[in-house]
Write a structure and sequence with these properties.
The chain is built from eight helices and no strands. With 168 residues, the protein is mainly α.
Length: 168
């Protein structure tokens, strides 16, 4: 196996959690998540030789994963989100372990109701990315990141209150 391929596989092994998190934000169906996971890996492999900072690829992986997921949603021009997650919780595999906790499940359900860019911003924010990092990954101004985070927090708080009241 050549060194570039070994390096790529090691990097993906170390950062595969990012791919699973992005998939959970954008896709509820297990098959869609698996298909998107493969597409993200393909896009990462295609662009890996051009990656400049191979020692710290986290931002690059987030950017490719988010952009690939959004492109897939736009291409399919349909979104099959479920109102709740219990059916898919029964089929839990590796990437679903993240949503076992009820609070995380509710948060994912609320984030799922945001638009694509706000989903991406909140995912990165929850991953403790800096505003500068989020700005760089998504290609938006840093000041816009802060504004969108504050707005999304208010929307999420409202959604979570309604989810807890059973109104969503």
């Amino acid at each position: 196996m050549n060194s570039l391929k070994q390096e790529f596989l090691k990097t993906m092994s170390n950062y595969q959690g990012i791919l699973h998190k992005v998939n959970l934000i954008y896709f509820r169906d297990k098959t869609d998540r698996e298909d998107n996971f493969q597409e993200i890996l393909y896009q990462l492999w295609k662009s890996y030789p051009d990656l400049r900072n191979k020692k710290s690829p986290g931002s690059w992986i987030y950017a490719v994963a988010i952009n690939t997921s959004i492109a897939r949603l736009k291409k399919e021009s349909r979104v099959d989100y479920r109102e709740s997650l219990p059916d898919f919780m029964d089929e839990m595999g590796t990437d679903e372990k993240i949503i076992r906790d009820e609070d995380i499940r509710l948060l994912l359900e609320a984030i799922n109701k945001l638009n694509e860019i706000d989903k991406s911003i909140m995912l990165l924010y929850l991953e403790e990315q800096t505003y500068a990092g989020i700005s760089q990954i998504l290609g938006i101004r840093q000041s816009n990141v802060g504004v969108r985070i504050n707005r999304a927090k208010k929307v999420l708080k409202n959604i979570l209150n309604h989810l807890n009241d059973g109104k969503y």
